[in-house]
Design brief:
Elements (H helix, E strand, L loop, with lengths): L1 H4 L13 H10 L1 H15 L9 H20 L9 H23 L1 H4 L1 H4 L8 H30 L14 H23 L4 H15 L15 H8 L3 H9 L9 H25 L8
Helix pairs in contact: 3-8, 4-5, 5-8, 5-9, 5-10, 8-9, 9-12, 9-13
């Protein structure tokens, strides 16, 4: 009887559990992650009339609104992209990040009924959220390709695609890790301080305006305080790098990218550590 118990998974009281063990547990529970991904995808569009059409309808409608607002504000989009293509790319990246952030941030409160019954690595839930979000992003990328080709062959927009387009995938990866790390930290804090849920929702809306989603960074005066705020925003570099692959006049700086990479890695390390520490005792506070 004692031998069989030796193979059970147990929560360790030692708070200094190594990252290697956390990732090893995630690999061991890869089948559960796949199960969660399938559940998330099915649950999202159940009992909807348009079903998976919402995957592309949301970015199309919001991008059209941004095109209208951009025309009123007389925002000049960079050469190589139509106005709709410019807003669609930035908007898709933002939706990807904000969805990852929001859904990860509610991990403990939304799954407390399951977490209280059986043990499995809680980190499997937010990781599955990131993967299911990537599935949605894939369709939005296909939509962007169609819009981009339409601009070239129908609207006669010059094709300025360049080597930087290869960085599109790393941009998605870094934004997903950033959304995951922010979500892990907020999810851990909201088990005790529920007010943060409201604060994060409000703060996320403000963060969009402090990111180059609806305007190009190149149009912001470099000597302004707002430009400094944009540089400190860890989302800025990834959005500008993604745009530069199709519009060479977009802003790009290796210094900014290095800062963003370090920020993502540091926040991910902190997020996993905090999340792992809270998962042992969150049922006492949820």
């Amino acid at each position: 009887m004692m031998e069989s118990n030796a193979s059970w998974n147990t929560l360790e009281n030692n708070s200094s559990v190594k990252m290697k063990k956390i990732f090893s547990e995630l690999y061991d529970y890869k089948d559960l992650i796949i199960l969660f991904v399938k559940r998330d995808i099915k649950a999202t569009y159940q009992q909807t009339i348009l079903g998976p059409m919402w995957l592309i309808l949301q970015p199309i409608v919001t991008s059209l609104v941004l095109v209208f607002l951009g025309s009123i504000a007389q925002i000049k989009t960079p050469a190589g992209l139509s106005s709709f293509g410019f807003y669609l790319l930035g908007n898709s990246l933002w939706i990807f990040f904000s969805d990852a952030f929001n859904k990860t941030a509610s991990t403990f409160t939304a799954n407390s009924s399951v977490f209280g019954k059986v043990y499995f690595p809680r980190l499997t839930v937010p990781v599955s959220v990131i993967i299911s979000n990537s599935y949605k992003l894939m369709f939005q990328c296909l939509l962007f390709v169609v819009v981009y080709l339409y601009g070239i062959f129908i609207l006669d927009i010059p094709c300025l695609i360049n080597i930087n387009a290869l960085f599109l995938l790393p941009c998605f990866l870094m934004l997903s890790l950033l959304g995951l790390s922010f979500g892990l930290i907020i999810s851990s804090l909201t088990t005790k301080y529920r007010d943060l849920t409201m604060l994060v929702s409000f703060g996320l809306q403000l963060l969009m305006f402090a990111s180059p989603v609806i305007y190009p960074l190149s149009q912001i005066p470099h000597d302004s305080k707002f430009y400094l705020l944009l540089e400190l925003n860890p989302i800025t570099g990834w959005i500008e790098l993604a745009k530069k692959g199709f519009a060479p006049s977009s802003f790009f700086s290796w210094k900014l990218i290095c800062y963003d990479v370090l920020f993502v890695l540091a926040s991910l390390f902190v997020g996993i550590k905090v999340f792992h520490k809270v998962e042992k005792r969150f049922m006492d506070t949820v």
